[in-house]
Automatic annotation (TrEMBL):
SUPFAM superfamilies cross-referenced by the UniProt entry: alpha/beta-Hydrolases, Galactose-binding domain-like, P-loop containing nucleoside triphosphate hydrolases
One Gene Ontology molecular-function label: ATP binding
Keyword Signal attributed: yes
The protein's name: ABC-2 type transport system ATP-binding protein
Membrane-spanning intervals of the chain: 621-642
Signal peptide: 1-47
Domain ABC transporter: 662-890
Chain intervals for the UniProt region annotation (Disordered): 43-65, 414-436
Keywords from the named record: ATP-binding, Hydrolase, Membrane, Nucleotide-binding, Signal, Transmembrane, Transmembrane helix, Transport
Amino acid sequence: MRPTAGLVRHRPRSGARAALAALTTALLSAALLAVPLAVPSASPARAAEDVTTEDATVPSGSGEDAVELDTTVYVPASATGDDPAPAVVLAHGFGGSKQSVADDARDLAGRGYVVLTYSARGFGSSTGQIGLDDPRYEVADLSTMLDLLAQRDDVQLDAPGDPRVGVAGASYGGALSLLGAAYDDRVDAIAPQITWNSLTTALFPSQAGAVDGATPAVTPSTGDSGVFKRLWSGLFFGAGSVPTGDGLLASLTGGATTGGGAGVPDVDPSTLDSAAVEQALTCGRFRADICAAYQVAAASGTLTPDIAAVLDRSSPAGVLDRITAPTLLVQGTQDSLFGLGQADANARGIAANGTPVKVVWYDGGHDASASEGDTADLRDLVAGWFDFHLRGDGTDPGTGFTFPVPTGVGAAVGSVQGGSRTETATDYPGLAGDEVQRTDVPLSGTTFPVVTPPGGNPAAITTVPGLGAVTAALGGTTVEIPGQFAAFDSEPLTDAVDVVGASTVTLAVSSPTGTATLFAKLYDVSADGSQTLPSGLVAPLALTGLSTDPTAPTEVEVTLPGIVHRFETGHTMRVLVSSTDQAFAAPAESGVYAVGLADGAVLAAPDVDGTVTSTSGATRWWVLLGVLAALGVAGVVVAKLWGARRRRQLSVVEPDGEDVPLRFTGVTKSYKDGFTAVRDLSFEVRRGQVLGLLGPNGAGKTTSLRMLMGLIRPSEGTISVFGHPATAGAPVLSRLGSFVEGTGLQPHLSGRDNLELYWAATGRPLEDAHLDEAVEIAGLGTALDKRVRSYSQGMRQRVAIAQAMLGLPDLLVLDEPTNGLDPPQIHAMRQVLHDYAATGRTVIVSSHLLAEIEQTCSHVVVMAKGQKVAEGTVEEIIGTGGAVLLVVQGDPERAAEVLTGLGATVERADEGLVVELGDLSRAEAVAALVEAGVGVDQISPRRRLEDAFLSLVGES
């Protein structure tokens, strides 16, 4: 693969700048790598129990994906072959290793659990590359660990090969526990902490759009686009992108760890492959597809389908309905990486399956460490969860909701003894059907012009990722740039307002381009005018489809960040909307938006009623146990029912899947605002067909294609590709090639570099790309090695089509493939698609050019207003009408001249002349042609697809 970018070499810093840089790096690293795992501390009765450790290197995976995982098992003296114990797997955070959770493992082992820790692939002394909790790799490795535990005679079994086991982890490890419970039904209980529901929504958030307000922190899911969380993403990539020491050598030697002493391989530099060196230095320990996705995101700041596919496959969001293990969700209120909305989505998705879910919010997160008291309380909570669900000991912890008591005080630097006051509710609002209560606070303010500066600089400063505690130490200082924001205030509050969750407000926005990137915040303004941004959190908004007329703006529903905060009496609640934020990528183009409040808009602030518990330590835990005991009866019933119906949900493969590459069955896509884009759509495509998807603008064609590719989910119905469900990240989608909604090409790279970078993101060998064949089909020629910025629109289109054909996919999906092509290129493309389908592959073409569909496709589905109005072969759709197809001998121009003189209307087509006879009979037409010396080979009924289309759409 050609290099896509040179290495970035930082200039040396001197003096104070170097010290500041070192401090910043250290704090950022601490925020990312040293997030404490809230696992149980040893109880006094068991703390002194003898614990032995067993280190081993365990193989996992096969072929090129085989790795060696560095493991340690902590065995309490009480766990024997005669008296086996439940097990717990502890997963570490991103950038850590098994050593990161060693103290926690020893504590759990002191409580009588067999505890397994290991360094994930790409971390510590384990080999392999980082896949971001990919089900094919990291999740499969977790199953290997369960296999290992099942072979031990000191581990309790539920069945042969099935250990009694819980999984806990924070951040990276928390997502692994969720995904592990979804993919391996041997997991009996999980305690994921400060982790994600959707990596796409977390790293490309957009909190615009209607939401179901039943739960306190529900947040809109990212749609087609989001705002790139630039600083956090860079921190993640930087933590794993540059291997050093034996990590670098392992990347270059395939993981060899012998010969050099002390685990360092003895390597002859002359034997190293230069491409491998470049790959290791550019991508470090990341897999190539993740590296490619980050490079595209960092360069463009945009969310592409390929990036979304990489992030979605590592997201629990798509598999929550498989989780039947009781789940304790712990999320921090001081977290600009994975906010409260991520835990909210996990809670809703898991509880919908009838699985017991308990939600705990605490005062901490990726931006600020929890106090020592809070950490101890969280450990006790996790201990109670595992004790009850793995051992059947203790009181049922139930399915309640615990959160900090709202105060007007921000987070403090460092940790202190004791814990914060908390409130506990019977259930997490919305999971049992009861919606969260909201307080409507009227806002006022005019319409503001909001300027976006060129390149997004200077930018507003809210909080530095990972440095929330430092921000708090500076008094919650933020910087808003004059001219770059609009502000809307409440009247001074006559009563305190508690906000527990995500508030909502409706704005009125217009933009000259119809698009805008904005950042919404909820400030607490004191009586003296000073303002504080609770938790330093921001809600990015990626807006499209906006009005270009400032006098008729578009109303936009906005969900503000999820917080726990009290706005005191006499304070003002301020919604501030800015055009920049230094933590996110901003558009390079300058612009001016008009931002105001929608008519009658209010700030809807959520609140949750709960019982205030004690302040810290063991005393608080026993009080909490007392409260939960009173609420535990229903939880016991749920737990018993769950135990009786525990199962793994498996997808059923359709038996005719290879003969029917695509099947839509009763597919409907509706949005929260009530708009239905697609309604009850059913059709199927057979192998070797070229299917045309026809419909006017707004018919639902693109929405249908996006559902097919797993980019959005149907509200109802099913879509199957080769017999398998077409869900986000589904392996079967690797058999699909697509070109939908723009080329997505990187202008600073050549066409060849774009194709190779795209293919690298699939993680498959370059020789499988059939690059030369795709290039020849698209007719790119010598322009392939020129930069894309020099291409015409037609050339960009052809590169994008070649990209879709890489790997010669079995199902090819093209949206408006002939846009920008000239007539000879269109003719060539038509033949390409015919030839492609003739090999037994299947092609779907969506186009507004009816003549192209008519001459290219064998079958047609016609849509209007989101519904199918006709389906069949082109001939069946066209049927018969007032036109004929005429094939003549000799000069067709002479034939057209004769027929036009008789009042007929004539159009040229590839197969002959299409003639609207009008009052002229067929016999008269043939006689006139013969008399004029024009021979007639064929005359048959003919109606153009355009006629049929207009008739069908008009009828709908």
